[in-house]
Amino acid sequence: MRLDPCYFCSTKIFPGHGIQFVRNDSKIFKFCRSKCHRAFKKKKNPRKVSWTLAYRKTNGKELTVDPSFEFEKKRNIPVKYDREFWMKSLEAIRKIDIIRSRRANHFVMQRLRRAREIEMQQEVREVQRDMSLVRLPVAGLRARLAAKERESQVEEIHDSDEEMEVTNAEEMEVPNAEESDIEEEMNESDEAPELVEVL
Ligand SMILES: [Zn+2]
């Protein structure tokens, strides 16, 4: 029993099914159903129609490169009938079918896993980008307020230090007007109080 593939969608055509079209250059096109025949008559490209095997293979959705495909090649060499050879071939076909289906399933699973990884990366990127929408506006408010208070306290301390420096400078006895000017300038810098004490 010969099972030819559909010209358009590449599924098997069982005997008594489908339709056959012979072009005037005697090339035979077999179709599994009227859907495929109609698509062919509309001159659709099977590689651009998403439900065909040709599309799936061109878009990397099916296993295409595998040594198991070598067995199915058409060979135009006449073979003399040999019962033993015939039986061996049938057994080999069965084994190869199992191996190929296993490899195809593995390929699909790998593809799906890769797709899941990419999806996860995209989701993480999206969340990181729109973090302001995810986070509550109140979240971390207490910590922020505490930090602000601490900053203001530090500023107050700095201000009081400066006032103290100014009072110290005023208390000092000033012999000359020129020297007092110099001292005032020095008070502005951090090392000023020590220098004043030395003088
Ligand atoms: Zn078909």
TrEMBL record:
<comment type="function">
    <text>Involved in the biogenesis of the 60S ribosomal subunit. Ensures the docking of NOG1 to pre-60S particles.</text>
</comment>
<dbReference type="InterPro" id="IPR038630">
    <property type="entry name" value="L24e/L24_sf"/>
</dbReference>
<dbReference type="GO" id="GO:0005730">
    <property type="term" value="C:nucleolus"/>
</dbReference>
<dbReference type="GO" id="GO:0003735">
    <property type="term" value="F:structural constituent of ribosome"/>
</dbReference>
<feature type="region of interest" description="Disordered">
    <location>
        <begin position="152"/>
        <end position="199"/>
    </location>
</feature>
<dbReference type="Pfam" id="PF01246">
    <property type="entry name" value="Ribosomal_L24e"/>
</dbReference>
<comment type="subunit">
    <text>Associated with nucleolar and cytoplasmic pre-60S particles. At the end of biogenesis it dissociates from cytoplasmic pre-60S particles and is likely to be exchanged for its ribosomal homologue, RPL24.</text>
</comment>
<keyword id="KW-0539">Nucleus</keyword>
<dbReference type="InterPro" id="IPR056366">
    <property type="entry name" value="Ribosomal_eL24"/>
</dbReference>
<dbReference type="InterPro" id="IPR023442">
    <property type="entry name" value="Ribosomal_eL24_CS"/>
</dbReference>
<feature type="compositionally biased region" description="Acidic residues">
    <location>
        <begin position="158"/>
        <end position="199"/>
    </location>
</feature>
<comment type="similarity">
    <text>Belongs to the eukaryotic ribosomal protein eL24 family.</text>
</comment>
<dbReference type="GO" id="GO:0042273">
    <property type="term" value="P:ribosomal large subunit biogenesis"/>
</dbReference>
<dbReference type="InterPro" id="IPR000988">
    <property type="entry name" value="Ribosomal_eL24-rel_N"/>
</dbReference>
<feature type="domain" description="TRASH">
    <location>
        <begin position="6"/>
        <end position="44"/>
    </location>
</feature>
<protein>
    <recommendedName>
        <fullName>Probable ribosome biogenesis protein RLP24</fullName>
    </recommendedName>
</protein>
<keyword id="KW-0690">Ribosome biogenesis</keyword>
<dbReference type="InterPro" id="IPR011017">
    <property type="entry name" value="TRASH_dom"/>
</dbReference>
